[in-house]
Amino acid sequence: MFYPKTPFYGKGLLLENQILKVNSHELNKLLPWLCKTPRTTTYRINTLRTSVADYKLKLETKLSALYGSSAPLVYGLKEIPEMLCISPLDTTTDNKYDDCRKELIVDTSCGAAVLRGAHIYAPGVLAMESGTQLHELVNVFADLPGKCKRGTATRYDCNEKIFIGVGEVLMQRHQLYNNKEQPASGIAVRMQTNVSGVPTLGDLSDEDALLQNLPSMVCVRVLDPQPGERILDMCAAPGNKTTHMAELMCNRGTIIALDNSASRVRSMTEKLANYTCITAHQFDATKAWDDNSDIDSIAPPFASGSFDRILLDAPCSGLGNRPQLCCNIKQPKVLQSYPHIQRNILSQAVPLLRPGGILVYSTCTVTEAECEEIVSWALRKYTELQLVDATPKLGAPGLPLPGLEAAQCDLLQRFGPSRENRMQNLDTVGFFIAKFQKKREIS
């Protein structure tokens, strides 16, 4: 069966060459890794509402009902005590491709979600063969070239479609395609198995727990927010790290969450409303600093030295969001635009931080330009900043660059296909974390 070896399918080498310019020897390892699925599922438990032990029992009960004696293991990590991990299934005994089954085609974003354990929702179904019946088992493929027309009723003839698993049909063709005024919604195909071995649970997220990638949790643990502190989340949507901070602070203190998009702020309003310490604003983080503002203001812009800690989970190319079956970025200039935005926001963050305060910079991407090069630039431009160890350390050190000393690279965390990752067995998404402290006195 065909499977991509680069997320830049059909886009040539121009984009690939933008990823790692200094450490280009790592590309042969990195590109196929980006296409593969992280096999460990992780949930963050809201310990303000429930215990980790109680939620572990809930997960184990659900998995036992689905998989019986073959149910995967649920376990925790001492470094992130509010997290539970679900191990992958043994794929050697899973249902495999059967040519006698009918085929169903989904787009690549839907296919990536299925490989992470999701079911198939109606908008993601591109093609279903005529005569497919309710509760029939079908072979599910993702359309890598993107040439399958929505509503196709015959078998899609393509050598580069990706087999991703077997599912049970819950909606027929007429439900999916015959009402243009009111498009179908809900689960169209309930996945039975997938080729990644990730348990098919859908998303069990609720107020008690949240499906979240491990490095995102590590990021907030590195920030280490404390009860009573004043914290700024500069690019907060969808609010998962924001709520994690509130939980670690026992909902005591002040967290101000900014996002430039009104729709994204609206979408996280209900989630954030459960925490009295969080205030959200639609605001452009590149304008967050104004020294004429009141030092105690809870609305942007803010005066110098307004915050004890700042999280800058920056807008980025998102190349670490595995599996990348087919990256939507088409031109090098799109990749090249992100460091400019990241520098602009970081330039606002530095004066907003109190002396002795902590700034965590993170991205969910793998390019040098958005990760290590931003750190190197910040240290050159802002002599009041110093790197400190980004602990807990579950990833690998940063990649070497001419502008960074080896000791500085060791303080960073990069989650990628490195043997140095301390939790390599978790096989997580690509991510980068740097932790700065503002010096109390500029030397």
Record keyword descriptors for this entry.
6-stranded mixed sheet, 8-stranded mixed sheet, 11 helices, 443 residues, alpha/beta
List the helices and strands and how they pair.
Layout: H1 13-19, H2 27-35, E1 41-45, H3 52-67, E2 74-77, E3 80-86, E4 102-106, H4 108-115, E5 120-121, E6 125-128, E7 137-143, E8 161-169, H5 173-177, E9 187-194, E10 209-211, H6 214-223, E11 230-233, H7 240-248, E12 254-259, H8 262-272, E13 278-282, E14 307-313, H9 332-352, E15 353-363, H10 372-381, E16 385-388, H11 406-411, E17 413-415, E18 431-438
Parallel strand pairs: 4-7, 11-12, 11-14, 12-13, 14-15
Antiparallel strand pairs: 1-3, 1-10, 2-3, 4-6, 5-9, 7-8, 8-9, 15-18, 16-18, 17-18
Helix pairs in contact: 6-7
Report on this model:
This protein is an alpha/beta fold and 443 residues long. The chain is globular. The protein has helices at residues 13-19, 27-35, 52-67, 108-115, 173-177, 214-223, 240-248, 262-272, 332-352, 372-381, 406-411, and strands at residues 41-45, 74-77, 80-86, 102-106, 120-121, 125-128, 137-143, 161-169, 187-194, 209-211, 230-233, 254-259, 278-282, 307-313, 353-363, 385-388, 413-415, 431-438. Helix 6 packs across helix 7 (240-248). It contains 11 helices and 18 strands. Strands 11, 12, 13, 14, 15, 16, 17 and 18 form an 8-stranded mixed sheet that branches. A 6-stranded mixed sheet has the order 5-9-8-7-4-6, covered by helices on one side. Helix 9 (332-352) links the parallel strand 14 and strand 15 (353-363).
